[in-house]
Each structure stands twice: as C-alpha cells, then as structure tokens.
Amino acid sequence: MNHFPQGRVVLAAQNLVVSYADHTALAGVSLSISAGESVAIMGPSGSGKTTLLHALAGILPPSGGDITVSTGPAPLRLAGLGESERSRLRREEFGFVFQQGFLIPELTVVENVALPLLLAGHARRSAEADASVWLAKLGLAGLEKRRIGELSGGQAQRVAIARAQVTGAGVIFADEPTGALDSVTSTEVMSALLEVTADGSRALVVVTHDEQVAARCSRTVRLRDGRLDVVGATSEVSA
Fold first, then answer.
1. Do the Cβ atoms of 92 and 164 come closer than 8 Å?
2. pTM more than 0.90
3. Helices 124-137 and 109-119: angle between axes, nearest 10 degrees
4. DSSP annotation of 108
5. Rounded CA gap, 119 and 98, in Å?
6. Which helix or strand (DSSP H or E) is residue 114 part of?
7. Could you tell me if 163 and 115 are in contact, meaning their C-beta atoms sit under 8 angstroms apart?
8. Are 197 and 217 in contact (CB under 8 A)?
9. Greatest pairwise CA separation for the chain in angstroms
10. What are the pLDDT digits (tens) for 21-53?
C-alpha cells in the first residue's frame, strides 16, 4: 500500500485544456490535490466536472497543459506517458468508483474486488485474501461468494469502493458515487469513501451534484464553463 506524508501533493494539473471540434470543455484549469484531502468537484451540467476527473485520472488526454502524478517513487508527467503506461497507472496507482459501479455480474463479490490485483499479476489466493480484508472493513464480511445482482445498491457501491482501494491506490476517483442512492445509503457510502483519507496517506476526488456530499469533503472546487469558479475550504464533517 502507498503511504505519503499528509499534505504532500500527489496530483497537480497545470493549465488543463480539453477541446473538441466546436466546444472547449476545460479552459486552462490548474489544481493541486494533496494526500489526506477529500476534494469535491461541483458545477452545473456541462461545466466540465467529469471531463476534469477523466483528465486527472489519465483517461482523457488533455489538448493542452499537463498533469503530474506523485503516487509512486518518482513524479510522472502524464503528457510523457504512452497509453500502456497510463493504463498501468490507472490500474495500480488509482482507484475508481462510478455511479453505476461497473462491477462484473458474472463474478462473485470477492472476485470483483480481487480483479485489479489479479490483473497486476498477484496469485489468486493472496488477491482474494486481500479482497476479503477490504470487504470486512466495509461491513461486507460473509457476502464474498454472492453475485452482484444479489446485493442492495449500497452494498454494491461498497464492493466498488473495496475494489478501488485493494491495490493501495494513492488517489481514489469517484464520479457521482451516491447519485443513484437514497439519502441514508448515500451517507453510508460517503462515510466509506471518506475513510480513504482518514489516515492522511491518500486522496479522494469526488464529482458530485449533491451539496451535502460536498460539505463532507475537506475542499470544494467549483467549475463554470470549463473554468475554476470557486476554490475554497468547506467545513469538515465527521465521517
């Protein structure tokens, strides 16, 4: 597992631009994210929230600007990486939680969580043992052999959170992770996500439209028309 000093910058974007033929999704966004932070990205529809998350995570190469990732032994500039290197970074250094989970229904719960470790070459027995530890931490002990279709929405999201954390990723990206959940389950899932940063060694980046979700993060970034609108601290609420 990666451990960083709290406050160390693990992700830094400089003048990010993402342009399409007739549209500029990001127009010169600069942002630094440190270990121990939980950062909410908010803004109206079409403001560039998900585009920013995808650029920071190396999913979407920007048209201009650069991103430096410092989750490994040496800083990496995404602009200098090929697709295979970016794929390795997403697989080993980043974790992802999406609104729909994107879990594999044919696999069991423990197999879904172990999958990133298996793809990285870990032995099945050790990968599933590590997966079981994370499932227990998230209150899912005893559900290892169930299929995804046998879980509630909240349970499925906690499986996705376990999968995102099992590699010891330095940054967890969550895109509307509570968008399809009721208020009680949303609170539980957000609490599980915020545990990522509880020891100060990792960072959480959350795209959300929910002000209550954002209020629980340590900082909120607001976008409008592809530009930073407000960057400021929010009051911290206990996870």
1. no
2. no
3. 130
4. B
5. 20
6. helix 109-119
7. yes
8. no
9. 51
10. 888 999 999 999 999 999 999 999 889 999 999
